[in-house]
Structures are given as structure tokens and as C-alpha cells.
Specification:
Blueprint: H1 19-56, H2 60-67, E1 72-78, E2 80-103, E3 117-120, E4 127-128, E5 133-137, E6 140-146, H3 162-173, H4 188-201, E7 254-257, E8 262-267, E9 278-293, E10 306-311, E11 316-327, H5 333-338, E12 344-350, E13 362-380, E14 385-386, E15 392-397, E16 403-414, E17 417-422, E18 432-439
Parallel strand pairs: 6-7
Antiparallel strand pairs: 1-18, 2-9, 2-13, 3-5, 4-8, 5-6, 8-9, 9-12, 10-11, 10-13, 11-12, 13-17, 14-15, 15-16, 15-18, 16-17
Length: about 450
């Protein structure tokens, strides 16, 4: 090896002959690595595309398998042993056994020029107490009293009759006695009792020009007991009256309602308006139910059948008994326009008194039209089938899924169930019987 130097005398760098070959080898290695990386990347890309395509493309066999209907599932129901009943469901309205309309008699006092409603105390749904004031017309009260006879005439001194007996009993209930008056005679003692009734209500009892009611006149114009042609003897004023004026009871100032809780059903009177013919409506007596029936149901419903009474609005339940099935009254124009009128009405009497919450309710009535004498084997009606061999059977499913036909003799039906008696096999409560089949639901995504 010889030394060499540059023209200025400095030594020059010299390279071995193999140095060039080493650089070339390194460049080739880099190129090969780049090619390898490219090949690997392309392979991965193609693999991803193939996987995606495979997930989207399906063979005809796969499509058929995924769109085929699911295998049917067998629906079963248990055999039961219980009392079987056949029932009929309808609607009914709860109302009191008595309904009284309190009417206006127009002018009520000698100084009244217009029958204006001046006060309304009654409110729909509330209980009315005997002796209370329902409404006031032209400053005069309408009092509620206990009694079955409606008020049909004005009572004044000397009046006699069953309506006076009723008045005396109603007054006695409130602590106002008739004194020495005979039963059924509107005498001084009864007049004082009426005066006390009005005072307790905050009013003055009305009085008339005479303390007596005129008895029927004789043909000659005289009164009973008088000699014809002679003037009638004047009667002494009633005890407790002022001058010749005795206490009277106008028919327009009292409303009689029979025994039982009395409630206000509706109020028509409005303060400040002229009193119409009807002021308000009262209901009294025990609550009963009237149900609607169609003509074809007449043979199904009979007296003494049991009825479940259910008020959906309150959740209250009660039990009653059918007392009668009668023709429905002719519908009013309003009722006819609202809905089709029923052909028949079933009368239902509750076995125990209904609570006040039932009043006015529209209720569901479930009438037990028939019932088995005791517990019997029953299955759903859909479990019973008849084959070409004329046998009636049910299909029993064992715990392992085995199905066995059991011949039965059907009995009474009711509420979707049939009484069954096994003929040639075994059938017991708890056995499962086939009632149908259904397709199993397909999971989301279309796969099972």
C-alpha cells in the first residue's frame, strides 16, 4: 500500500475497494423491505375486503334458513277442578228506590209579585235532613219532611185526613208534638207544632184569615150541624193564633220524602231567576240497580240469580240478587238520541245495603246465569276437539313433551270453559292440555 498526498502536500483519504459494494448491499436491503411492507399491506387490505364481502354475501341455503318460519310452540293450559258458572255481563245504573221532584207552585205569599228563587241550600249528592230548608222562593222556604204521601193541598185549622196524620208524625219525629189534637186533625196543637217547625228553620209560619178549613158545604149553603136557613155560628180562634188568623201549611212549602236516606240528585233552581216548574229532584230509600238486557237474553236471566255489582270508578264491589225482568220503559227523545234503548230491564236488589258511594254510579253487572252443583273438572273450550271418529277428546302433554289423546264426555259450559269427564283415559287437575300452537318469536336481526 503506498501513501499519496495532495498537491499541497497533505495526505489524501483513501478507501478500500470493498466499501462500494457494502453501500450497494444496504440500498438493496432497503428496497426489499419496502417491497415486503407493500405486499403485506395489500394482503391485509384484500383480507378486510374479503371479510366484509363474506358478511354481506349469503348463499341461497343461508337465506332460506334465516327466513324460514320458526318452529311452532305448543300452547297448553291446566286442567282445573272447581265450580263452573255461566255468566252474563251487562251495565246498570244505581239509584234510590224513590225519586221525588220538588215543584214550584208559583206565587207563595200575599205580597209576592214574582216567584224569584232567593236561596238554594241543597247541593247535588248531599244527604237531606228532615226539617231542613231545600230552597227559598220569594223569601219563603221549602221544607223537607218525612212521609210517603206527596203534599197535595194547603192545610189550615180543622183539616182532617191521612195527610194530616203524616204531618203530625213528621213533626213528632222532630220533637214538635200535636198536643191534645186528635190524630189526623189539624187543630191548635198541630198548628203550634208547625209554628215551632218554622221557627227552628228561621222563618215565620204562614197564617190564614181563618184558623179553620171550611168543611164541605151543605146544598143550602149551610155547614154541617147548622139548621138550614140560619147563619153558621162563628168558630173561636185557634189556640196560639193572633186574632182570627191561624197557622196554615201551604203545599208549596213542604216536600215529603219516604223513609231511608234522602239525597239531592239534581238542582234546577238558580238564585235570582224565576222559579221554573221543577226546583230540584230528591231520591230516597234503599239503593237498587236497574240493568239493561236485550230481548234474546230474557230466557237466560231469571229471579233469584246472583249478581256481582262492580263500580269501576271507585273499585267498590257488592253482591245482589235478581228480583225481576221487566219491559224497559219507552225512551224519551233525549235518551233515544243518546243511545239505543234496551228492550228489557233487570231489577237487582243488593244483598246488603249499598254504601252511599254507589249512588248514581254506572256499574258493571255480572249475572250468574247457571252453575254446576259442585266442583267439576274443567278445561278451556279450545282444548276440546272432535275427530272424524266422532270421539270428543283433549290432548294431554306430559312433562317430556309427549302428547296423548284422552276421550272425554263434555258437560255444561260457561265463561269459556267446559266441564269434562274422562271416558277411556286418565285426566286429573294439574294435567296440561293442548289449546293451540303459536310461532316462536324471531329474535331481532332476523335470526333465531
Amino acid at each position: 500500500m503506498t501513501d499519496s498526498s495532495s498537491p499541497d502536500g497533505s495526505p489524501m483519504e483513501t478507501r478500500a475497494p470493498g466499501h462500494k459494494r457494502t453501500a450497494e448491499q444496504r440500498g438493496g436491503l432497503v428496497r426489499r423491505r419496502r417491497i415486503l411492507i407493500g405486499v403485506i399491506g395489500a394482503t391485509l387490505a384484500l383480507t378486510g375486503v374479503g371479510t366484509a364481502a363474506a358478511s354481506l354475501l349469503k348463499s341461497p341455503a343461508q337465506v332460506a334458513a334465516e327466513t324460514a318460519p320458526p318452529a311452532p310452540d305448543v300452547l297448553t293450559a291446566p286442567v282445573e277442578k272447581r265450580v263452573l258458572s255461566a255468566s252474563l255481563v251487562t251495565r246498570g245504573k244505581v239509584a234510590a228506590s224513590q225519586r221525588v221532584e220538588v215543584l214550584s207552585a208559583g206565587l207563595t205569599g200575599p205580597d209576592t209579585t214574582r216567584p224569584v228563587v232567593t236561596k238554594v241550600n241543597a247541593k247535588p249528592g248531599e244527604v237531606v235532613k228532615p226539617g231542613s230548608v231545600l230552597v227559598e222562593v220569594a223569601g219563603r222556604p221549602v221544607l223537607a219532611l218525612r212521609g210517603a204521601l206527596p203534599s197535595y193541598r194547603n192545610l189550615s185549622g180543622g183539616a182532617v185526613g191521612p195527610d194530616v196524620v203524616q204531618l203530625q208524625q213528621a213533626l213528632a219525629e222532630l220533637g214538635h208534638r200535636r198536643g191534645s189534637d186528635a190524630s189526623g186533625t189539624f187543630g191548635p196543637g198541630t198548628q203550634e207544632a208547625v209554628r215551632a217547625l218554622y221557627k227552628a228553620a228561621g222563618y215565620t209560619a204562614p197564617t190564614g184569615a181563618s184558623g179553620k178549613a171550611d168543611p164541605p158545604a151543605k146544598p143550602d149553603g149551610g155547614k154541617p150541624g147548622e139548621t138550614p136557613g140560619k147563619p153558621a155560628s162563628p168558630e173561636p180562634p185557634a189556640t196560639g193564633s193572633t186574632g182570627s188568623a191561624g197557622v196554615t201549611l201551604p203545599a208549596s212549602e213542604v216536600a215529603f220524602v219516604s223513609d231511608g236516606p234522602v239525597r239531592v240528585e239534581s238542582v234546577d233552581a238558580v238564585v235570582g231567576t224565576t222559579a221554573g216548574e221543577k226546583l230540584l229532584t230528591l231520591t230516597a230509600g234503599a239503593l237498587v240497580v236497574d240493568g239493561a238486557l236485550e230481548s234474546y237474553q230474557k230466557e237466560t236471566v231469571r229471579p233469584d240469580q246472583k249478581v256481582e255489582i262492580f263500580a269501576e270508578s271507585t273499585g267498590a264491589r257488592a253482591v245482589g240478587t235478581v228480583t225481576a225482568v221487566v219491559a224497559a220503559p219507552a225512551p224519551t227523545a233525549k235518551d233515544a238520541a243518546a243511545s239505543a234503548a234496551p228492550a228489557l230491564v233487570v231489577k237487582v236488589k243488593p244483598d246488603t245495603a249499598l254504601p252511599a258511594e254507589f249512588a248514581g254510579q254506572n256499574v258493571r253487572l255480572t249475572i250468574t246465569a247457571a252453575a254446576s252443583k259442585g266442583e267439576v273438572l274443567v278445561v278451556p273450550a279450545s282444548a276440546v276437539s272432535s275427530g272424524a271418529d266422532a270421539r270428543t277428546t283433549v290432548t294431554v302433554v306430559s312433562g317430556g313433551g309427549k302428547q296423548t289423546r284422552v276421550e272425554i264426555r263434555p258437560g255444561m259450559t260457561g265463561d269459556g270453559y267446559v266441564e269434562v269427564t274422562p271416558v277411556g283415559g286418565t285426566l286429573a287437575p294439574g294435567n296440561r292440555v293442548v289449546i293451540g300452537v303459536t310461532q316462536a318469536p324471531v329474535p331481532s336481526g332476523g335470526k333465531r
